[in-house]
Specification:
By secondary structure, the protein is of the alpha/beta class. The protein folds into three domains: 94 residues, de novo design (two linked rop proteins), CATH 1.20.1440.240; 169 residues, FAD/NAD(P)-binding domain (3-Layer(bba) Sandwich); 165 residues, Alpha-Beta Complex (Polyamine Oxidase, Chain A, domain 2). The protein is 28% helix and 20% strand. The strands form eight sheets. A six-stranded mixed sheet has the order 12-2-1-16-26-25, covered by helices on one side. The protein has a four-stranded mixed sheet with strand order 10-9-20-21. Strands 15-14-13-17 form a four-stranded mixed sheet, with no helix packed on it. Helix 2 packs parallel to helix 14. The longest helix has 21 residues.
Length: 520
Amino acid sequence: MTSTLPFGLAGASSRRAFLHRLGTIGGSSLVMSAMNAWDLMAAPAGPRPVLSGRPAKNRVLVLGAGTSGLVVAYELNKLGYDVHVLEARSRVGGIVWSVRKGDTHSEIDGERQTCTWDDGLYVNAGAWRIPHSHEGVLGYCRELGVPLEVFLNDSDANYFYGEGAAAGQLAGKRIRMREVKADLTGHINELLVKAVDAHQLDAALTADDQKRLTEFLIRQGYLDSTTRTYKAFADRGEGDPIALTRLLEAGFGNRLRSVPPMEGTMAAPMFQPVGGMDQICKAFQRALGPQRLTFNAEIQSVHQDEDGVTVRYRDTGADTPVEMKGDFVVACVPLSVLSGLDIALSDTMMQAVKRVTYSDSAKIGMSMKRRFWEEDDQIFGGHLYSNLPIGEFSYPSNDYFAKKGVLLGLYSNGPISDLSTRPIAARVEHVLMHASKVHPQIRDEFESAYAVYWRRVQYSLGGYATVRGAALREQISKVENRILIGSAATAPRSLPDWQEGAVSAGWQALESLHARAMRT
């Protein structure tokens, strides 16, 4: 018989080998998800640069008011530089965007949307959670007075749901996280006790050790004290235990970890700003002041000579050309946008810029008439773990017990069939069709949706950057006379798909720019 054990368990020919392998598998990817975002890790940005001095020529133009651009501008401003930020949009944040009532955008070659949700409702269309180890971002929250709340990544009430052969005999059944936890742990406790009884563990245990270990496992509540077999118990939920082989076949166990990782999408605890992720960028905006930011400034060209730089942009509000001069430029726009500008970079640098690719990240927020996931299913935050073609489906970790709420109906970092080219209504219908398999009431409760497909959004042209190889990152991080790239793609100590990466990139650009300016 061909083994169907997933993720490194196939070939375990004995209970001892099975227990050993079970202890070594990770669980770092979201079970049965249609996206790979759970594998994305990001280290802390490292120590914030401590700089001093101010050069005589200190007029710096920062292109882009995303996280990296705001970090550069904020730190340069503290050093006494004459810094000014040019942003093509009418807001700060870049892909750190909390969509609210009245927000609107048009897709490139596509339709226009306007958010019609009630006041106070929002969805984070880009960045949406901060691991506790990301001290760069959290440090700025502390410094700028941005209040935080816990982002609930996991909840034992959340469902697993799989379709097709991948889910085995559990296909088409929604199963609570608590049931999966209880049944996997209970079955394994039973195997471990049997191994103790048969003296089959590798480590030598005294008779007293074996007795204490068995008593400990029984006290957890999973095992019958007389038969020492796994039994159902009240906190597990209703129904009989699911067979261990079925759970392993479905792959559900790969989502469980007894100790959460320090980094990445499964880290715990995680945080979010109260009122939306954009509160961080808005705090930078307040710290800089209105005199240091110009919105609706669509960059047209960036030229330089030995004396300075000249940036020409179009005021999209007045549809007029404007010219601004400075001593240096830090370009913090996405490289997918930078590659299309008339900018005085060397051929080598521009070739490197064009080699950086951006994700197909997309999100659809869905406003509901009532918080049925709380009222009907007792779900408070966390995600749906499924192989449905909606990427990640998640529940809000804020405004519990309010009347209405916004679900993250879809979150993907890659294409899902031809969904991105369909009309918005068809994309929403796709989500409703699949989500109703787990939440049949969703159609009746649905009000309206807002879809953000970052590759189809002007001034973004993609989600987060992918930089393949240290040599490429080092190349795009170089100062070219008076121009320096400071976008998240250049992050030296984290990854561009996290705000911490943008902070890291901003700090690197800050140090490089200051060193270059002081030489002048």
